[in-house]
Queue: 4 jobs
Job 1
Amino acid sequence: MPQRQPLWLHAWAARPPCPTPQKSCHSLANDPHKGTIMHIPPHDNQNRPIVDIGDARVPLNYFNIVNLMEGQSFEYQVPGYETAVVPATGAVDVTIGGEVFEAIGNRGVDVWDGEPEGAYAPTASKVRIVCTSAKAEVFIAGARFDGVLTPFAVRSADIDKIQYGSDDTKTHRKIKHILGTKYHGRVGRLLVSELFTVGQGGWSGFPPHKHDTDRGLLETRHDETYNFRFRPNHGFGLQLVQREDGVVGEAYHLMDRSTVVLEKGYHPCVAAPGYEMYYFTILGGLSQRSLIQFFQPTHAYQVETIPGIKDMIAKFK
């Protein structure tokens, strides 16, 4: 089979404007009652960044979704950001600088079909991804970081898992840390994980918490980006964002492949009854990698009612 031409795209290249139906998803709203638009509806991003470098809402994050067929390749380089390549489905070979990591990814039809894998790319690395399965959907997650570290692969056996909550409290979920705390010292500011509701319906990110301000041991500034999936894929949920205690917040209708950028505020989300929810999570710290969450004082006592939540909190530190 003749080799297919690579899909060349560099993160700093100028991009055509977002199609008309999506215009508002990338703009900053001036409505003081609504604040910044934080929900990016599902759309075909054509392998272009969904959250680009220097995004005014979450400047510490970078996010792209790349779709490839067997034999196709994609190349990128993101100045000022370290990145992680994580196949949502399919398998890829990843070349970072001169180092090759083969057969990254082993999932089939969706994110529930197998365990995640990934590859870490140091800041501003030249990265080449080649699809080795029939097709692949690949997440590229990034965080702003000036240092340059060493690339490495994360295999399914390396994933750090935790399950907490309960059906009774409607908070039962599972987290798979791809770039978690075990990689402190090998990663600069980036945290990457996958969160699953366990069972159908239920809350996540509860009690409401935030991490938008560096306040010593109370809280850290970490920008956050989510990409949601539902099973079955016509499922839905809600993302709530409350920027101030005692002030009515915003609610975003989540669909399969919705992206949410969390600039500021308390941000629980919920899956509708009858549907399982997943979200790919990118966290980028301003001054440190360890995440310190600040729970909304009105609801903080609920931490004591949710089994295992304190172990979950510790896994992000």
Job 2
Amino acid sequence: MTSRTLRNATLADGSRVDVSLADGRISGISGISGISPASSPAGGADLDLDGALLLPALVNGHAHLDKTLVGSGWQPHRPGTTVRERVAAEHTLRGEVGVPVVERARALAEQMISFGTGTVRTHVDIDPDVGLAGLEAVLEVREALRDRLRIEIVALPQSGITTSPGTEKLLDEALAAGADLVGGLDPDGFDGDAGAHLDVVFGLAARHGAGVDIHLHDLGASAVRQYELIAARTRTEGLGGKVNVSHAYGRLLDPPRGGPPGRWALRRGGRLGADQRADRADAAGAGAARGGRRCLVRLGQHP
């Protein structure tokens, strides 16, 4: 067994402590002893943090390891005025990068580790063109780094579901192969049929016991309607605390003055946040607890 002590650390609450480590895990936390690392029983292996702040590993709640350009050559910005145009531009870029996904994904994951990240949720494209190739590459990276980085994978149908024949089957296969959550993309704005899109997403989640993380860029009344649909499906399937809405651009809009109170249900955390106690931080880090409770559906924004 290998052991060492991180001495004279400052925790988030301001307390000064010594943190004992054994085989790479925290084995104990105690008040500072005043023993210098050089004179400790570990023979100089201990580290004096001199009051530096010691925090748990950071959580990156939204990434796309399969699409990173880290480790490849310079790529110029490719303009697109709609989500569909930007998705098409990404499809073109796939064939021009020239560096395998597994190499780029690992390069970014290693960079995350170096910055203190311990958990990352990554979305991975699943569509008829790429199949499960991106997922297989990220699964390889997850296995290689399993002792240093927890990688949670969302199977993302970024090219749509109902408008992309074959994608539903691929999502099913992705979840069976090791993806942890099923994703979605603008059920109304991209696929044009929010009900059918969500039928597939929540059906797969129920079948595989998986969580859900949906990209939603739509604005205005369409966005509000989709938030409400997602919340309703979440309640029906008993998935409180396991559903996330990423980007959630529509959340930035204020409800219309004098509008019906139920129209902006998701804006009031208390209405949807009473289902589960947030007794501890969510291991996936996909959303923050509010007021001591975890939101039924978590709305997130990504730069």
Job 3
Amino acid sequence: MSRAPRRAGAARAGGGGGPAPRAADPAAVPLQGLAPVLGPQTRLVVLGSFPSVASLQAQQYYAHPRNHFWPILSALWGLDLPRLPYAERLAVVRERGLGIWDVYARCRREGSLDSAIEDAELNDLPGLRQHAPGLRALAHNGGESARSMPITRGLGLPVHRLPSTSPANASWSFERKLAAWREVFDLYSLT
């Protein structure tokens, strides 16, 4: 799933006729996503779209402090996951049977908004079952990730669409997101 390339810079106001000189365009550099968090006990994989700027800088899934991913898991499991070191959070996730990955392996993007993703390359979603033999279902975290549902449905597993945990999804309250996530997690005995 690729998007159209970004348009060239607009002509400068005040004459000159050529494109305005541009600083190095952050979207010109391809960004590389994070490795999957999977294990032999993984029953459900939550698929995001692509890591935010904060996540890429920290090399951690859902690192933005206002993202609801870790607080939702904390509420579901009765643990204070945000206070744990990242490696310990991942150990808990694996022990509980949850996997984490993104639909895009790499892309170009300025900022963190999904709407800015360009030239996206998919991860090896069909290969998920090889890395998580106990996989029972997939859940897309938000709309951009859900655009890949035709591919994930091809795995022959149940596929769910969850409300995005991103701070950009302000139309859903934390409580409403939590209820939707709980419903899916309950189906696979992850609560």
Job 4
Amino acid sequence: MLAPGWIRDNQNTQLRIEDLCDVSGMSRASLHRHFLAMTGLSPLQYHKQLRLQEARQLLLSGDHSASDVAFAVGYESASQFSREYLRQFGAPPARDAREIRRAIGNPSATPGWNADFPHTDVAGG
């Protein structure tokens, strides 16, 4: 089935089930049934999950606001993004990223950290 790959390739755009039907050559009902059997999710749930995973990666990889990330991954509403993020990960976007950074010991969780600035350790490294 081509639909999951097509969704991944187009995850930052609005998902149209008709487009998936065209790509996969299936009716709406057949697409839904096959997609659910293959992924355990509906096409819309799969699309949302991909977007939220990408958003989490963006939040962890840089100094991006939740609203910037929301728009970058294709959401049209930052508040809708925040609600869906909270439902998916159990914490609002900024807090989730901060807690993950802290848990893995990421120095960029420290206020004032600048990843572009070359840091050395005290031993002269």
